[in-house]
Design a protein that fits this description.
Number of helices: 16
Strand order of the largest sheet: 1-5-3-4-2
Largest sheet: 5 strands, mixed
Structural class: alpha/beta
Order of helices and strands: EEHEEHEHHHHHHHHHHHHEEHH
Oligomer: single chain
Distance between the termini: 82 Å
CATH class of the largest domain: Alpha Beta
CATH topology of the largest domain: Conserved hypothetical protein from pyrococcus furiosus pfu- 392566-001, ParB domain
Low-confidence stretches: none
Radius of gyration: 29 Å
């Protein structure tokens, strides 16, 4: 038989435990749409297997096999290959146009290739382009470090599609700190930018105060926010992020509180917005007025004029200028 041979094989003859070519970190359950499709029209796209010895190793098509099992099928169409040579290349080529691998998945794939005894140079030259990666030793060395991240955190970072430039901070964290981070991000489900912002704050605070990340993720203010059932995931994140900002930048946080109190005293119109550079890198300020007619404009200007007369705007300016 050759690699073009197509036949029907018994699912019971397949090695369901060998995960060499299963590169996905998605939920291991079979996608419902795929299962429904298999129930309705069967397997239209054959899997690929190595038929050297039973049980046959799956080269590509792990999810299709799961779907066939759930649909009650006892056999499945398969292309037969005499050896596992090139199996990884075949799998990656087959999936190249069908899906996009996350950075976590790419790192896991590169580690599988290393375990199989494939030389680093071959991986960089042959396999990395199949993962839409440049042929770079630096990129290779960065990505293989994903095996330092615990599996639960790997899956979470994959689901959130966090890039390596954000999650590489975990390479230096021990398992306890990673577990604490996984629980936090599972509860808050932030986007990539929020992940980056919070991890930057955590890193800065831990280095300055010589404490562990776990101490921050298990702090009373963190636990109180995470256990508050009245808050959404996003609100939990925002509350904790705000607290960390205060801890990291106490002087700036105090200035912002002074500004908030000064604005309360000024009592500007609801349609008047006061803006300033929140990092206080500039002392430039801006008043933004929104109005639909002369009356609305007049009301806002009148309130600004009264604030000028009372000295409350002068007080605000002094706070900004330091």
């Amino acid at each position: 038989m050759n690699s073009e041979t197509l036949t029907q094989v018994l699912i019971s003859d397949l090695d369901l435990e060998n995960r060499l070519t299963d590169f996905s970190l998605n939920d291991e359950r079979c996608p419902e749409k795929l299962m429904d499709s298999v129930k309705e029209i069967g397997i239209r796209h054959p899997i690929s297997i190595c038929f050297t010895n039973k049980p046959y190793k799956i080269i590509s098509g792990h999810k299709r096999v799961q779907a066939a099992i759930k649909a009650g099928l006892t056999s499945i169409p398969a292309f037969l290959f005499p050896t596992m040579d090139g199996a990884l290349v075949l799998n990656l080529k087959e999936n190249f146009a069908l899906r996009h691998y996350s950075d976590i998945e790419k790192g896991c794939i590169l580690n599988k290739l290393l375990v199989e005894g494939i030389e680093e140079k071959t991986i960089i030259d042959l396999y990395m382009p199949l993962l839409e990666l440049e042929r770079s030793k630096k990129v290779f060395q960065d990505l293989i470090l994903v095996n330092r991240i615990i599996p639960k955190l790997q899956k979470l970072l994959h689901r959130l599609n966090v890039p390596i430039k954000v999650f590489q901070v975990f390479f230096t964290w021990d398992h306890e700190n990673q577990e604490a981070a996984e629980k936090f991000f599972t509860a808050t489900r932030p986007g990539v930018n929020k992940c980056r912002q919070l991890l930057e704050l955590v890193e800065e605070i831990t280095k300055r105060d010589n404490i562990s990340p776990k101490k921050i993720f298990s702090a009373p203010y963190t636990i109180a926010a995470l256990e508050n059932k009245g808050l959404t995931s996003s609100q939990k994140y925002d509350r904790i992020h705000e607290t960390l900002q205060i801890i990291r930048y106490p002087v700036l946080s105090d200035l912002k509180k002074q500004i908030a109190r000064a604005l309360d005293e000024i009592k500007l119109d609801d349609k008047t917005r006061f803006k300033y550079q929140e990092a206080f890198e500039s002392d430039e300020m801006k008043l933004e007025l929104k109005f639909r007619d002369e009356r609305e404009l007049s009301q806002q200007v009148e309130k600004i004029f009264r604030a000028l007369q009372s000295g409350s705007i002068e007080k605000l300016i002094k706070i900004i200028k330091g």
